[in-house]
Amino acid sequence: MSELFQYDPGRMSLSFYGENITGFNDGSFIEVERSEDTFTTHVGSTGDVTRTRSRNRTGKVTITLMAQAPSNDALMDIYLDDEDFGTGIGPILIKDLNGNMVARAKEAWITKVPKVERAKEAGSCQWVLECADIIIEARGNVI
């Protein structure tokens, strides 16, 4: 028997530094990943295997917004305060309200000003945030 799964991109929730981020672009609009593999493998000359655990729990969140989204203003204000005063470190929480996927970090910050591009068609604005200790629960969706 086949199963029915549903997904609604409008049911994604992302907050950073107390700001509810909205105005996601079409296509891929949220990406979350760890900086390093949790385990690496070393194989010796006789085939013995050593598995090494990395304690690096840093990660990166990439958010792609429509260029006209008001959340760009909020993120820019956070970035400028961080650049001037070092106050732009805050919590990030990403939830897929369709199911059980959650990503969160207590300390995240914007890495740099996004590339600005204007063209004939409306474009996007991509923000990259680094996270000191990110927890990613890449779970599935439920109906």
What is CATH's topology name? Answer: Elongation Factor Tu (Ef-tu), domain 3
* Envelope shape: globular
Question: What is the top-level CATH class?
Answer: Mainly Beta
- Number of helical elements: 1
Helix-strand topology string: EEEEEEHEEEE
How far the N terminus sits from the C terminus, by CA atoms, comes to 16 Å
Q: Secondary-structure map with pairings?
A:
Blueprint: E1 12-16, E2 19-20, E3 30-34, E4 39-43, E5 49-53, E6 59-66, H1 71-85, E7 90-96, E8 102-110, E9 124-131, E10 135-137
Antiparallel strand pairs: 1-2, 1-7, 3-6, 4-5, 6-9, 7-8, 8-9, 8-10
Describe the fold and architecture.
- It is built from 1 helix and 10 strands.
- The radius of gyration is 18 Å and the shape is globular.
- Helices cover 10% and strands 40% of the residues.
- Strands 1, 2, 3, 6, 7, 8, 9 and 10 form an 8-stranded antiparallel β-sheet that branches. A two-stranded antiparallel ribbon has the order 4-5.
- The model has no long low-confidence stretch (mean pLDDT 95).
- With 143 residues, the chain is mainly beta.
- The protein has a single domain, classed as Beta Barrel (Elongation Factor Tu (Ef-tu), domain 3), CATH 2.40.30.
